[in-house]
Amino acid sequence: MQELSDKFKEIYRQIERFCFDREDPVRAIRNMRDFYEGYDAFGLEEEEIKILRDRIFDQYELTVREIVDFGLFLLKTGKFEFGSLAISMIKKHRPRLDPYAREKIKEWLDNGVENWAHADTLGIKILPVLFELELVDLSSFASWRDSRSKWTRRAAVVSLIWLRKALPAEDILRFIEPLLADNEKVVQQALGWLFKELWNRATEITEEYLETHKESIDRYTLKQVISLMPHSKAKQFLPPKKVGPKPQSGPRNKKFVPNRPRPPRAQAGKPKPYKPNGNRD
Question: For 21-71, what is each residue's pLDDT tens digit?
């Protein structure tokens, strides 16, 4: 982990004190159920993170470069609130983003982000601004789509949901094609979300795309988007299920054991006399 300057060591100690003073284990445990990939948190609320952010900005003058550098350090700690604070800090400076910040934010996703909440917040609040400021276009954005990090790939897809009005649907659909075979569930979930929003905006184009690629689109993703359609239309987009005999490693009756000795059958005849257990008074 990078070495901090004295100023950021002081800020980091302030962040730790703030979080430990307001720690809520009950809320942290309750929130844990939404993060199957892991959740290391103090249990703070979003408003408390904003209070901490504003307190830091009131005491220190920070450049965008300092924020993105320090933000990577915060994300790498693994603490949920530290990552949320980093994102909240850069959100306040979105109009001042520059190429250096763009590269650092990608590094946040590649090496720091570890959950869907941070990936989606960056995809919704930050990445579309990179397009607005002309710091990226779909061609240069391909490196985000092709990242080794599933969270970078998810954030790239989520950002396109917020750019669906600014970019042609055909270009978006062509851009995401390499992700159709992505094995990560979090990426497929984002694709399903994107398809649903595109279907609402460009129905014919999206349906044509689904029909063309239904054999290669993940079945879970298809089910997400066709859940909005009438049943009669939805059926045409689902490829037929592959039905075949299940492999059988043993007899159908798993309790059957060959060559097991059988108990002798009861012989027909008189019933055995009753033998009481003990004497009765």
Answer: 999 999 999 999 999 888 999 999 999 999 999 999 999 999 999 999 999
For residue 213, give the amino acid letter.
Answer: H
CB within 8 Å of 45: residues ≥ 6 apart: 27
Which three-class secondary structure state does DSSP give residue 49? helix
Residue linked to tokens 């990078």: 2
Q: Which of 145, 161, 143, 87 is nearest to 118 (CA)?
A: 87
User: And the tokens for 13?
Assistant: 């100690």
User: Using one digit for the tens of pLDDT, what is the confidence trace for 212-265?
Assistant: 998 899 988 988 888 888 887 887 877 666 656 666 565 555 555 566 666 666
CA distances from 127 to 11, 25, 96, 122 (A): 26, 32, 13, 6
| CB of 42 closer than 8 Å to CB of 17 | no
Q: How far apart are CA 163 and CA 167, in angstroms?
A: 6
Q: Name, in order, each residue with C-beta under 8 angstroms of 2's C-beta and a sequence gap of 6 or more.
A: 69, 72, 73
**Contact of 177 with 145, CB cutoff 8 Å:** no
Which alpha helices (DSSP H) does the chain contain, by range? Answer: 6-21, 25-32, 46-59, 64-76, 80-91, 99-111, 116-125, 127-132, 142-145, 150-162, 169-176, 185-201, 203-213, 219-226, 231-234
Question: From the CB of residue 176, how many other CB atoms can be counted at a distance below 10 Å?
Answer: 22
Helix, strand, or coil here: 4?
coil
Q: How many residues does the chain have?
A: 281
Count Cβ neighbours within 10 Å for each residue of 32-65 and write b for 16 or more, e otherwise.
eeeeeeebbbbbbeeebbeebbeebeeeeebebe
Closest C-alpha among 87, 95, 172 to residue 133: 95
